[in-house]
Amino acid sequence: MNNGRIWCVVKPTVGLPLFLGGVAVIALTVHAAVMTNTTWMADYWQGNKPRRAEVQTPSVNVAQSTADQPMWSPSCRSPACRLTRLPSL
């Protein structure tokens, strides 16, 4: 055990309940925060179907906006430069 000497300072009958109690308090705090700070939790508990998210369409055509930009750096004009790979570790 990496930290086995901790039990020379703290008795296991005291340390283990404190550790497990701390884990339980943190878990309950996180669950309470999720239940109180989300808008969908009440709907989920009531059995309602999830609402669909609205899909936003881009206002600019992506094909037209990227056609004017080069696919590689202007300083790298050779095909060999575009196909270079990072060295493997």
TrEMBL record:
GO terms for cellular component: organelle inner membrane; plasma membrane light-harvesting complex. InterPro entries: Antenna_a/b (IPR000066), Antenna_alpha_CS (IPR002361). Keywords: Membrane, Transmembrane, Transmembrane helix. One of its GO terms (biological process) is photosynthesis, light reaction. Residues 4-40 form the Antenna complex alpha/beta subunit domain. The chain crosses the membrane at residues 20-42. This is Light-harvesting protein. It comes from Elioraea tepida. The lineage of its organism: Bacteria, Pseudomonadati, Pseudomonadota, Alphaproteobacteria, Acetobacterales.
